[in-house]
Amino acid sequence: MGLEAVIASRGAFSLVSEVHDGLHVDLDNTESALAAILEAAAHTPFAGILGSDDSTVELAAHAAQALGLPHNPPQAARLSRRKDLARAHLALAGCPVPLHCLIDLRRPLQPQMAGLPWPCVIKPLNLSASRGVIRADDADGFVAACRRIQPIIAEAKDDFEASHVLVEDYIDGIEVAYEGYLHNGELTTLALFDKPDPLQGPYFEETIYVTPSRLDEQTRARIQQRVAQACAAYGLRTGPVHAELRIDARDAWILEVAARTIGGDCARILDDGSDFMLEELVIALATGRPVQTSPSYQARGVMMIPIRKGGILRRVEGIQAARRVPGIEKVDILLREGQELVPLPEGNQYPGYIFARGDSADEVVHALKEACARLDFVVAPLFRIRSG
User: Fold this and answer.
1) Is residue 1 part of a domain?
2) pLDDT band at 182, cuts 50/70/90?
3) String of DSSP letters for 187-246
């Protein structure tokens, strides 16, 4: 696209040259990071600014706003990454969200549990990939879940995020993922993904995304309507939109609307194999260029390979057998020998991805499951040495 990319990160000592040679900022200090970005722009003007994940969309919005570049309001970007603020804001705007409340883990839990619905779901305020998300069916399960989440969120830089969790009513329905984009405030759908594996807890490990959705036209229209309603409530105007919703007989309930693309390597599922790439669309939106989309309508899907057993990865067997399954396009193993596999709810990454295409969504799902069944992650036990 004729553009030079400058990576702003905390990676001053990175071995990756693009990161080491980029702009080094303190991502935990918005004021100093913004000053560093503006100083760099004074020497070499930027054509656009992008946040690459939930933790950077708000800073990117501040910087783009200061430089007069296409952007979402910073407050809208903040709402998209803080689950508690998002829930409260959407509820006030009349959007369908689960009943919810905040729990302060520093205070006794028993008094705060009065009136909670069973089952309920406990969530960290700002983590992704279902990390730390636990379903509780009763009071004992709730207390155990809170105790398990506490060390997971303790690493948060924000004191409030490190001490509070969101609790919400469990919606017993199917879950979908929505991928689209906003241009001048208008929402366009790129894909609606079914999640064929039931996500009922106690942990919510996502595995398969498949499109086109097998939902009826009326339900698909309602999903887009709800996502557009949430974007308007936030004040989002431009850029990618990734949403998660639960569907039951009553409505399409908003679980998340994020001002970013689908996470990890899953974005490859949206490429059409020729002209369209999701990254080009996002860069066009961020730089004010003409927007063109031509996503494929062929049935396609991705499996985020689940971690069945924790430990130190020794090897992955069956990769070639998995790649030979009809319909499989790619099997990517990202973790390497010697790295640790950490299951949910503590874990926050997948060991790899499987991509498939076919004549129908059912065919794609079958291929993904067959390929995954041929993989064997050989792990060794992990022994931690603690002092004292």
Assistant:
1) no
2) very high
3) EEEEEEEE--S---SSB----EEEES--S-HHHHHHHHHHHHHHHHHHT--SEEEEEEEE
- Residue type at 303? M
What are the φ/ψ torsions at residue 315 (nearest 5 degrees)? Answer: -170, 165
Q: Give strand pairing partners of 285.
A: none
Assigned token pair, 249: 């007989």
φ/ψ region of 300 (left if φ > 0, alpha if ψ in -120 to 50, else beta) reads beta
- Mean pLDDT within 171-196: 96
d(CA 235, CA 85): 14
pTM over 0.90, yes/no: yes
- Domain extent, residue 377, equals 298-388
Cis peptide preceding 212, ω within 30 of 0: yes
Whether residues 109 and 178 share a domain: the answer is no
- Residues 111 and 163 reside in one and the same domain: yes
Percent of residues, the chain, with pLDDT higher than 90: 85
Whether residue 43 is contained in a domain is answered as yes
Both 246 and 163 in one domain: the answer is no
Q: Which residues of 352-376 are buried (b: 16+ CB within 10 A; e: fewer)?
A: bbbbbbbeebebbbbbbbbbbebbe
User: Which pLDDT band, with edges at 50, 70 and 90, does 132 fall under?
Assistant: very high
Eight-class DSSP state of 10: S
Q: Please check whether residues 322 and 353 belong to one and the same domain.
A: yes
Does residue 184 share a domain with residue 291? yes
Q: Which two tokens stand for residue 141?
A: 């399960």
| DSSP assigned state of 36 | H
Residue 274 has pLDDT above 70, yes or no: no
Cα–Cα distance measured from residue 198 to residue 289, given in angstroms and rounded to the nearest whole number: 40
Distance CA 38, CA 62 (A): 10
Indicate the number of domains in the chain. 4
Tell me which amino acid residue 13 is.
Answer: F
pLDDT in tens, 139-170: 999 999 999 999 999 989 899 999 999 999 99
Q: E strand or H helix at 17, and its extent?
A: helix 17-20
Q: Cα-Cα-Cα-Cα dihedral of 350, 240, 270, 187, to 10°?
A: 140
Does some domain include residue 165?
yes
